[in-house]
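User: Hey, my collaborator sent me this sequence without any context and asked if I could get a structure. I don't really work with proteins. Can you help?
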Amino acid sequence: MERKKASDYPQELLNLFDKYVHGEIDRRSFLDGAQKFAVGGVTAAMIWESLRPNYAWAQQVPKDDKRIKADYVTVPSPQGNGTVKGYLVRPANATGKLPGVLVVHENRGLNPYIEDVARRLGTANFMAFAPDGLTSVGGYPGDEEAGAANFRKVDGQKMGEDFHASARWLKARSDCTGKVGTVGFCFGGTTVNKLAVSLPDLGDAVGGGIAVMAIAQRLAGGLHDMAWGLEVRLADAEIDDVLALGLQGLGAGEHFESGLGAQAAHAAC
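Assistant: No problem. I've predicted the 3D structure and written it out in structure-token form, which is a compact way to encode the shape of the chain:
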């Protein structure tokens, strides 16, 4: 299958797929709506297949990369779902304490892409932890549709507490410098904003999908919240709310940025 970019598709089709991904329509409804774009021997099913995540294409750091050490660990979350399982990645030859980065997934759980993001951070000399918000329902099931369906079964407030517990756990580790930043995609972007406001000693909080390495290098203490010019889930009034939220949560001398990538869509990266 040929690898395509978002710009290769009509925006109307991408908006339709966005609704499918977020559970607003089922697969059959997406296929029905995509039928108008099925021309030149291309079927609606082929379009659906081409839009689905291909984690092999996205992978940058293999699981067995010798530069990192990765483990699955379980973190206590007494105010959330009791415990939360996650993917912990550190540089293999690290000496001394490391800054931490909490990686927050989309609305489908700890999928292979999010694990790869954690590994990328590990190769850049950070300790990354990617919790699985679906732990209480068995974890990421290995299938995007099932993951999205299971996501809707989890109590949202308790899941939020699971990520709070994960951030505190990472910060308190004896091998962490105590400086922890966060990066999130889709649902993760919302979670990052909430963490930035509710955890005053959090480092950089990055919502959206800016280049992860560039962000991680700026763990100086700030909120970098990115909205996208083609973002169908963020109205102008909501952008204003994001700005207000960021400014409300930061004190004097602290840093807040918010930007719009004119040609980038929801959860772009």
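In plain terms: The two ends are 21 Å apart (CA to CA). You can pass these tokens on to your collaborator as they are.
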